[in-house]
Write a structure and sequence with these properties.
By secondary structure, the chain is α+β, with helices and mostly antiparallel strands. 45% of the residues lie in helices and 17% in strands. The strands form six sheets. Strands 1, 2, 3, 4, 5, 6, 7, 8 and 9 form a nine-stranded antiparallel β-sheet that branches. Strand 14 (302-308) and strand 15 form a beta hairpin. The radius of gyration is 57 Å and the shape is flat. Keywords: Membrane, Transmembrane, Transmembrane helix.
Amino acid sequence: MPAKRRIRLPLQVVAAFSVIGLLAVVVSLLSWQAYRGTQEVLISASNDAIGYISEAIAEKARRNIEPAEEQLAALVHSSFGEADTLEQRLAPLPLVSDLLSRSTLIDALFVGYPNGEFILFRPLRNETERRRFSITGDATILAQSITDDGTGQMIGEYRLYDRQNRLLKTESRPEYVFDPRMRPWYQEAATQDGVITTPPYVFFTNEAIGMTLARRSLTGGAVLGLDIKLISIATELSRMRITPSTELALVDQQGQVVAYRDMLQMIIRPAHSEIRLARIDELNVPALQQANKLSLRDNQKSRATVVSNGRTWQIIKSPLEVRPGRTLSLLIGIPDDEFFAAARHVVWRQTIIAGVLILLAIPAAWFITKRMVKPLRILARETMKIESFDFSSDIKIRSHIGEIDDLGRSLDRMKRTIRKFLKIGTALAAEPKFKPLLDRVLQEAVDLVRSDGGAIYMISEDRQMLIPEVIRWHDRELFSAEQLSQPLPLDGPAICINLAEALETKDIRTVERPLNEDELTALGLHGFVHRLQALRVLLIIVPLLDRNQAPLGALMLIKAISHENEQFDAGERLLKLVHAVSGSASVAIQNKLLLEAQRKLIDALIKLVAGAIDAKSAYTGGHCQRVPVLTRLLAEAACGAKTGPYRDFNLSEEEWEALDIAAWLHDCGKVTTPEYVVDKATKLETIYDRIHEIRNRFEILKRDAEIDYWRGVAEGGDPVELRSKMTSAQRQLDDDFAFVAHCNEGGEFMEPTKIERIKRIAKRTWRRTISNRLGVSYEEKARMDRVAEPMLPVDEPLLADRDDHLIYHSERDLIGKTNPWGFQLNEPTYKYNRGEVYNLCISRGTLTAEERYRINDHIVQTIVMLESLPFPAHLKSVPELAGGHHEKMDGKGYPSGCAARRCHPSPA
């Protein structure tokens, strides 16, 4: 995939927009800080608002409950507790009427008695409430009573009273059946002192939401109660929304919704059960559902941010204690887009101001940067020339800005140096052979410092000597190592000491003193110096180091000084350049040495494998070493053909290398072929020759014949007749074994009559009395266990093809018809068949079809093994060449049965 092209911008644009961008960043940070500050103010304000809402709701609940508690406390002192008759219970009606008229939140006042009697006073404040109880007229109070008629029968009655507490009507209601003792408020209040409150619930009679307050009377066992409506709390919630879309709900500890802006959603009317309050999950308000899941720690409110229906919400859960022991939770969900609208308005206003400032800054920044980048544009054009490898022109840039002026001068010097360095690098990379490479390194170094000549020495394997490799003089004559002096011992003449010091310090050494006769002779320069009549010789010794900074050798540059006033100044910059060139040369030299060493190592390993394969079998010994010789002779003959189909055939040096490797490795797959298969000399031979087992069976039968003779004699039989029978049987056994042994030796062809005789002999039986599964290997016993062991003693065939003689293929043995190498092999049903009759009836040779397949499989393994090796590109043909030596031009070879096409493509 091509690399994505990066966007390139002029420096003037970058500089101008950097200034503008910096200004924009500063303004943006300030705007963001203002936004965050506004957010924090809004959050703080919301916390205050939530506290106010919580206090307001709690106060509203207390204002509903506390007066009712006080009224209930007053009622427990009334005569309700001692009243035994209905008339006595109706006597406090004025008090009740006054109480109900003062509080619109009281839905009903009622009293339950221990005997199951009950009385309830309900205000009828409007026509809607009258219709609910099927009441007409001006009744303002409904008294519902259940009393015992003295026979244990409970009678239900409705009494209607007007505003003056005058009885208007009495109605018998037989269907009105109610036992207060079964109600939770009665049971809880009857067992404790003080006022009890029930959790909020839906009143059955009018579907109002409220709660019941109850208290036991001071005298008697009656329990007085008040039903308090909580509708005012829901109204308060609707009025206290922070934003238009704010959601608020009041829930109890069981998750029931006690107050919500929509009363209809709060009430659930199941089909087959009583009406009840909705749970928070049934409101279908995700923000409130998430708020209810928040946990309260130390009875403090909890806050979080969630995303619901594409909007981000601030959700809060705050505890609200309406009375001791009765705590509700206030759930609040505020959408961010409404909550932080003011903060966004602040950011938008500051953004407009920032935009105006940036527009004013653009012209000023553009003018200033234009003056600054003009010389840089000229330098950019010069660097583009360098990128295009155009080093022909020099750079002359001058600027009042010091950094730009220095950059122009440095760029000019860099172009000059690169010109020289590229020339040397190109020359080194282009030379494929070692000796010419050394000569090219020396030539480039001599030209670089304008010396008269030089030499390259390579360090010996014992690292005690420097071996001269190449030498050059100003007339460019190339001298081989034989024309140079002898190797230099590093502890020899003084000049050798200088060489040793350069290798040890890994730094360039210069020698400017006159060299003595011994030094000139050691370096092979005596004749040159006398011929040039040089007064002295200047030497520059450059160590050649490998990647690990270990010495490879030394490069020595020679300058002959012929005149007294002649000077040769190898400046520091030039010496650094020489050092850099020597580094590149050292890498190139080391690479060549490593490649040569690797090639020798690979060649030795290949021959090692071939030798191991030859040593594996006495029958094929020397084969892997003869094939490369024959292959090269055949290839050379084809390359040398001037006429015929091979007249245009030729091999490159790399192709010769691939052919040699393929010839040496053509049978490497034989390492996987068992020796007893390769060297199988008889038909029954595996790791040992099984003819010995069969001989023992014949011996047993011969002994059985002798035992039968003596048994017959002991039983009174004719000794002469019995001996004749024994002798005849033993003679036949000897003849049959001799025939079996002869068949075991194998041959060119086995006639069908011999096969029939083998099968007849196999039908004879001998008796085995010992289990053949004792003392055998795990694998052999596993094969035997495929068939149940017979009861001993057992008569067995003299020659057998048993089930345990069949060795199945394992999963890794199978190649399959569809394989990545294109092998076309007819795999036998079994990996091995060691049946005795089966092996003795081999028609030609000693190998079964399974064993012949296993031998042929060596070429499959050769291809698989070679395909797995990471051959370099020029050796990719090795698996194909090595794996094709059993293919035929007519396509009848193996393993792929291919003709004029690639036989063994690499696996995908």
